[in-house]
# Entry
Amino acid sequence: MITLTTPPTIATQLGATSSSSYAKMRIMDITADPVAQSISAAIQLIDTANTNLPMLIGSLSIMTQGNSPSVEIAVPALNLSNVVPLTSAEQTTVQGWITALQNNIEAGLVSLALIAGAQSGGI
# Structure
């Protein structure tokens, strides 16, 4: 879970002056695509101070290829959609995450003898 340094806040009730802060972000349902070199995931924003409030659901998308490599976070309940361009170095880092994940899962399946074969690099 990530503790947000500037968490989004919303009113606790319609017309209320008090607000609630969604200070934690959980990333889940992660999909890494080694062919498209992309990552997609669902996110949850959580108010840990008031557990009666619902989690806010959103999405995370990281695209490392194409004309506009970027990270996009969207939380419809907050009317939030933000796209941040990736630098070349950031692209390389994310592609390394995807490759490492793919290689580790493949090597693990082979080493546990769940799949007969030999793991090799590449997609």
About this structure: The beta strands are 2-3, 9-11, 19-21, 24-33, 38-46, 56-63, 70-75, 80-85. The mean pLDDT is 88.
